From TrEMBL, chain B:
<dbReference type="InterPro" id="IPR029061">
    <property type="entry name" value="THDP-binding"/>
</dbReference>
<dbReference type="Pfam" id="PF02780">
    <property type="entry name" value="Transketolase_C"/>
</dbReference>
<feature type="domain" description="Transketolase-like pyrimidine-binding">
    <location>
        <begin position="4"/>
        <end position="190"/>
    </location>
</feature>
<dbReference type="GO" id="GO:0016491">
    <property type="term" value="F:oxidoreductase activity"/>
</dbReference>
<dbReference type="InterPro" id="IPR009014">
    <property type="entry name" value="Transketo_C/PFOR_II"/>
</dbReference>
<keyword id="KW-0560">Oxidoreductase</keyword>
<dbReference type="InterPro" id="IPR033248">
    <property type="entry name" value="Transketolase_C"/>
</dbReference>
<protein>
    <submittedName>
        <fullName>Alpha-ketoacid dehydrogenase subunit beta</fullName>
    </submittedName>
</protein>
<dbReference type="InterPro" id="IPR005475">
    <property type="entry name" value="Transketolase-like_Pyr-bd"/>
</dbReference>
<dbReference type="Pfam" id="PF02779">
    <property type="entry name" value="Transket_pyr"/>
</dbReference>
Amino acid sequence: MQIAHDILLRSYRSMRTIRDFEERLHVEFATGEIPGFVHLYCGEEASAVGVCAHLSDTDTIASTHRGHGHCIAKGVGVEGMMAEIYGRKTGVCHGKGGSMHIADLSLGMLGANGIVGGGPPLICGAALSHKVLKDGGVAVAFYGDGASNEGTTLESLNLAMVWQLPAVFVCEDNGYGEATGASYACAGTQKARAAGFGMPYFDCDGTDFFAVHEAAGQAIAHARAGHGPVMLHVHLARWYGHFEGDAMTYRANGEVARERAERDCLQKFRTHVTETSLLDLSALDDIDTSVKDEIEAAVKAAKNAPLPEPADLQADVYVSY
Amino acid sequence: MSKKSFRQAINEALRQEMQRDPRVILMGEDIAGGQGGSAGVVDAWGGVLGVTKGLYTEFGAERVFDTPISEASYIGAAVGAAATGLRPVAELMFVDFVGCCLDQIMNQAAKFRYMFGGKARTPLVIRAMYGAGFNAAAQHSQALYPLFTHIPGLKVVVPSSPYEAKGLLIEAIRDDDPVIFLENKVMYDDEEEVPDEPYSIPFGEANLTREGDDVTIVAFGRMVNFANEAADRLEKDGISCTVIDPRTTSPLDSATILECVEDTGRLVIVDESSPRCNMATDVAALVAEQAFDALKAPIRQVVPPHTPVPFATVLEKLYLPDAARIESAVRSVMAYKKAKQDA
Amino acid sequence: MTDLITPITMPKFGLAMTEGKITSWNIPSGAQVEAGQEIADIETTKITNGYESPASGTLRRQIATEGETLPVGALLGVLAEPAVSDADIDAFIAKFQADFSSDSAADTQADHAEPIMVSVGDLTLRVQEAGQGDATPVLFIHGFGGDLGNWMLNQNALSTDRRTVSFDLPGHGGSSKNVGDGTPAGFAATTAALLDKLEITSVHVVGHSLGGAIALELAKTCPQKVASLSLIAPAGLGQGINMDFIDGFISADRRKTLELVLNYLVHDKTLISRKMVEDIIRFKRLDGALQGLQTIAKACFPNGRQAEDLRPVLTSFAGPAQIIWGEADEIISPNDARNLPDTIPVTLLPQTGHMPQLEKAADVNAALIKLAK
């Protein structure tokens, strides 16, 4: 599939933004200034961006506790996200959600989700909305190999097939559910699970933007055309722990280093566009500089932003009560 | 205006709201019934107790969705649909089944608005049957409204009659927050005059079904009928009771409860849910804290024992509060004399 | 002998069934049946099910007829071997029926004339008719926020020798909630159309409060239809109006606040019953009711004054007319009845508020009957 120039540039920028956002959080978290749990998406950028390249604001996604990448790929601004993670009033959720609950429904971002397997049922509902309202949209559930064992996920695969929903189930398989390997926790295969529900299955190398883009394009087109739900199985690796502060004692020496050296999606992207003369490296370098500045500005703004006020404690529990 | 059963009143509310607003959809297990069966019938049941009968035939497969027996997925789907432009009414059959989908209600629907900084709307109604008195035993008889009342972000409705059910369900469907609407299955054939036109009853506004001077009785759902029965009997003996039907446990009309207790000085609370951390304890705490000086006697709770709901008729009868028990509780607070008066 | 006879009773399908309808017998009387054979179809609110015979034998009697709805446990038919005598079966049935008491059996309600729904143009009006006879009919028109129930103490008294009609104005009671422009003229047009629909050509018109203004508009546009005018605390004769009542009636949404507002209506405040308050709250909850009231208030009482001066209509009305007013009216002052021609008698009732037809029903009825003679 030939990818338009501007989409390539935008996609690279998204991946670079996610990378820098997460690397910076890794540093800032260590200073103790960021409260709560933070789960980093580094290493998995091509998945979120390769899938979301096919989506617009009228499509819906649901994310996971490891949600920063999906948010950025779906268009949520980094300044509001950073402020949210810092617990500031200017955050996208006014400091009341934090890292695990960043959402922007106006962009079709149904939220990161603190509950493993929380997203797939919601996405059945979003897909139902698209179907009933006939707006041409599709709904995409990102979930991990860990969540693939939740009953909610398996029930959602069934329901989506029964209702023939325009839903895409993107299983981001990074090999670990928290500290437990997928080889231990997942019986059978994702492919066989999809087949069990009669659901079309696609898979791809999640560290290769072009592979993800290609597979996601086919999967999403299938759902968007009204042919029912699909599963997209993305193989990737996370570069940091389950959450920040996780020393990853369960991973073999050199495993992460090898991933970084051999399967860095940004490096692979640069190599690919150079070899195929799709883009000029200098354009990518410019993006790198610009993103660096943007993240710097976001951190600065977040640190200086006002904290929520006491009145915010009881605000927005209900629309009316 | 015509006589309608509790079941018909709910069916009519659903029908009229579906006619009014194309975004209102229904989903649930067997709410049509028969799909995929060998008879080729697609509106066989209308829900396990027939409440949604005829709606599939009237509104079709675009608006009425039979689900697999898969509460987590379809209640979650209702939540997701509500957050993205529809106004789903999901039927959870027996409320006891919330054990299979509490996450979708408690962690998702209830919290979206708050954790997303006030930017989400989740106009969702979950209808479910509750209540003992049907020999349906421990897993099909609970009165779980306190469980939902405990969760910020949910509204909880416990209607006490057909008239109340129709107006409160229409309000629930028009409400922009997630609403748990609990129907006592023993009441489905109760009848009363119900307007044919659509109407809505606001949440958080208690209804006084009796007004009296001696004792305030706060009762929930089906218990309101027992409280009325007890009040009418007591009236003949010169004991006049106010009976409060709060209609919704969340929001709760604390002001009316406090006002009535200020007037009568005595309080009996009737709640068919399990006695620990239920509505009776909640109302008792409210009054103890905010109307202590008005009390002429200790607060009495008429509640079941702290056991699962039993199966055998004789045990289930013992389990449930009834008019006789309410009556005796009222008599006991009337008879109460303070052991010693302060000098 | 009875152990050879098997009663077939209304089965209970599922948890909620209390009664069922026998839609058809699948076995004729006198036929042999096997246990488990479907002998009848039973319909409930949920389902229609085949009913399998509980035993084998000859279906000796079909007690229930097709189409009959019976409670669970009621006798549908009797199975017995041919050897059992008819007399024994009769005795069995008699005993069964005597023992089987059903609460749902006693449904004997007195036959009351219920209001009927009448289509007038796009509107549906709730209409209460009573009486018959040759005398000219009487039409009752209620006021702002009222309904035909306002005439519960009057309509029957006027119905001894004639047809009488009360109805809910648009936006009120059980009528359509579309009030049009909300003016007395608009309501008068609807009233005229209702009379046409009921094929009433000439009628004594009794109008209360805003209904008085509507009666005057009717007399203005359709004088031939109006045999006489009885105006009770009518609008249209002055400018003053108690806006605390009008606004409060619209805004009050709880029993307590509404009760205070309704107290304006009567001199004897104990007349405002719980049921009256509850009925008004229930009316106001209906979709469109509140908007209707707001439209009427805006059209009839802009800037807190009555909009229409209908005195000229009254003074130039050719037929007989009278005014009835409570001296203690807190909504519209009885002073509005001053300075009318002597030909129009004014009955002022002491210690009476805005609803003399309720508070002093006997006096009002006497005056109405007198004019309608």
